[in-house]
Design a protein that fits this description.
By secondary structure, the protein is mainly alpha-helical. 51% of the residues lie in helices and 10% in strands. Helix 3 crosses helix 4 and helix 4 packs across helix 9. The chain starts with 22 loop residues before the first helix and ends in an 8-residue tail after the last helix.
């Protein structure tokens, strides 16, 4: 008797189809995120991407003052590095309220109520900083403020005509900066050091040649 071979039933497992996430799709997704992010920054405005007082704006401020500063050097012997450096230090690169509203770059005070504005300022008195209100001069332009600034050194104060003679007689910016502090231009005990550091950081002494 011939035995019949039983056929083996082979059950084939169906392979599940898995979706492949190609690297190209990842790159496209990253590109979209990158584009949307920086596009949003652009829409929100320049101030978000480029901070106030950027390197470009600082350079523009220096160039704007340098020409007139060199003219004042020829007329009155004030070093341009001092003129520009003090303007930066006193007005925070021309952005202070006093500089923007009243064109006063140097914090020069006045007494004529028709030509001054009362504003808050800080003074270093008896070893500590205090806030006071004082009358500051108003000008038509930054150049006019620079003119008045150099005339303060030329004419001195009401109580001492020779108070700032040493500033104009200085051979270099370091001597001039120290003369400013020694003769009471500012109450800040570190004023000369701050001014010298600023002049050297932005190479303002190149305009003294």
């Amino acid at each position: 008797m011939v035995q019949q071979k039983k056929k083996k039933t082979v059950h084939r497992k169906k392979k599940s189809r898995q979706r492949r996430f190609f690297p190209s799709r990842i790159l496209i997704a990253l590109f979209i995120v990158f584009f949307v992010f920086f596009g949003t920054l652009t829409i929100l405005g320049k101030s978000i991407i480029e901070p106030l007082n950027s390197s470009r704006e600082k350079e523009e401020f220096i160039v704007q003052l340098s020409g007139h500063a060199k003219t004042l050097q020829k007329e009155h012997d004030l070093l341009p590095s001092i003129s520009i450096g003090q303007a930066i230090l006193e007005s925070d690169w021309g952005t202070s309220e006093l500089a923007t509203e009243n064109k006063n770059l140097y914090g020069i005070k006045g007494s004529d109520p028709n030509n001054t504005a009362m504003m808050q300022t800080k003074e270093f008195v008896e070893g500590e900083w205090i806030e006071i209100e004082a009358p500051f001069r108003k000008y038509e332009s930054w150049q006019q403020s620079m003119d008045d600034h150099v005339l303060l050194f030329v004419n001195g104060t009401n109580w001492n005509a020779d108070q700032y003679t040493a500033v104009l007689a200085a051979d270099n910016y370091k001597e001039a900066a120290q003369a400013l502090q020694d003769n009471g231009y500012a109450t800040d005990p570190t004023y000369a050091k701050k001014l010298i550091n600023l002049i050297e950081q932005y190479q303002l002494h190149q305009y003294d040649d």
